[in-house]
Write a structure and sequence with these properties.
This protein is α/β, with parallel strands linked by helices. The chain contains 13 helices and eight strands. α6 packs parallel to α8. The longest helix has 16 residues.
Length: about 300
């Protein structure tokens, strides 16, 4: 309890804060719009951290998690950075867990006005009904992760789900690329088959589809509602560099590239993602769209905080 007449002691800003704020302030932006952030129930979060802690032998390097903080502390870090809107992106790893994750994400979003209300689904008989209900309730973005969930995007159990999302225009962030470790369910072909049947589906391809960057870039060029998020690309840590010959094509896709970070599960300062985008030398207008305007166009500004943090 704070004694009468004394102000509460505020925590100092995170050491990474100044560099992040300098980046977007130099561009004249009101902040950042990050479409690829994770907040998960504590038990699931611990399990995810354990996977990354043990990832070294699989990826050939350690993966120290830089922002391993409580939920409340991580929200404050993002606010301090000036991330005005961010997702929570739960992803179901087996049947029967989506409902638990979606309920938790709903309750979390209710207490954090910057959050894009996020949800997930899995190929199970109940998926069409609960996805339709979630869309009606105002879920703003879905997330699926085929590498973790080990399912095909064109599983017949998802046919009605894709139809609902196509009609609603609700974006779905899909980790479909084979990075960092592929399996029988990753790669561009399953998503390509889905898009052939549901061409108006609004998709955000996570990690720009690495390492199959060319194939996923071509989908974004072909389909009106296919986007790419920058998560972890263009950082020194990411061992799958974006092919240099593809970079000029990103200029033509300026309205369809969205800032993503994978916060909190990244092994480097948040600003490294931003600096990597700047090194592409695609211009300040491109950076402004990627870091802010494209997100606000796709999702709307919603409860953006005008100041503070």
């Amino acid at each position: 309890m704070v004694e009468e007449g004394r102000s509460p002691v505020s925590k100092p800003p995170h050491p990474d804060t100044t560099a992040v704020r300098d980046f977007w302030q130099r561009l004249g932006l009101p902040g950042l719009f990050d479409v690829h952030v994770h907040f998960l129930p504590e038990n699931i979060q611990r399990a995810v951290y354990a996977v990354f802690d043990s990832a070294g032998p699989k990826i050939g390097r350690d993966w120290p998690i830089r922002y391993r903080l409580s939920h409340e502390e991580r929200v404050e870090v993002l606010r301090g950075f000036g991330v005005r809107r961010f997702s929570t992106l739960p992803y179901a790893h087996k049947p029967g867990v989506a409902g638990y994750l979606n309920d938790w994400s709903r309750d979390f979003a209710a207490g954090v006005p910057e959050v894009l209300r996020s949800a997930t689904f899995y190929p199970e008989p109940e998926a069409p009904s609960y996805v339709a209900r979630l869309v009606d309730e105002g879920v703003e973005v879905f997330k699926v992760h085929v590498q973790v969930g080990e399912f095909h995007l064109d599983d017949p159990l998802l046919d009605a789900v894709w139809g609902t999302l196509e009609d609603a225009g609700t974006p779905v962030v899909i980790h479909a690329g084979s990075g960092p470790v592929g399996n029988a369910f990753t790669g561009p072909d399953p998503l390509r088959r889905v898009l052939e049947r549901f061409p108006r589906l609004c998709v955000v391809v996570a990690h720009m589809g690495a390492p199959e960057c060319a194939e996923f870039l071509a989908m974004a060029e072909t389909y009106e509602r296919v986007h790419l998020d920058t998560t972890m690309m263009f950082t020194e840590f990411f061992a799958m560099p974006y092919p240099a010959e593809l970079v000029p094509r990103l200029r033509d896709l300026q309205p369809k590239v969205l800032l993503g970070s994978d916060f909190p599960t990244i092994p480097y300062p948040y600003v490294e993602q931003l600096e990597g985008l700047a090194r592409l030398d695609l211009g300040d207008d491109w950076l402004r769209d990627v870091c802010w305007h494209n997100g606000t166009r796709l999702f709307g500004t919603g409860n953006v905080r005008a100041s503070g943090g």
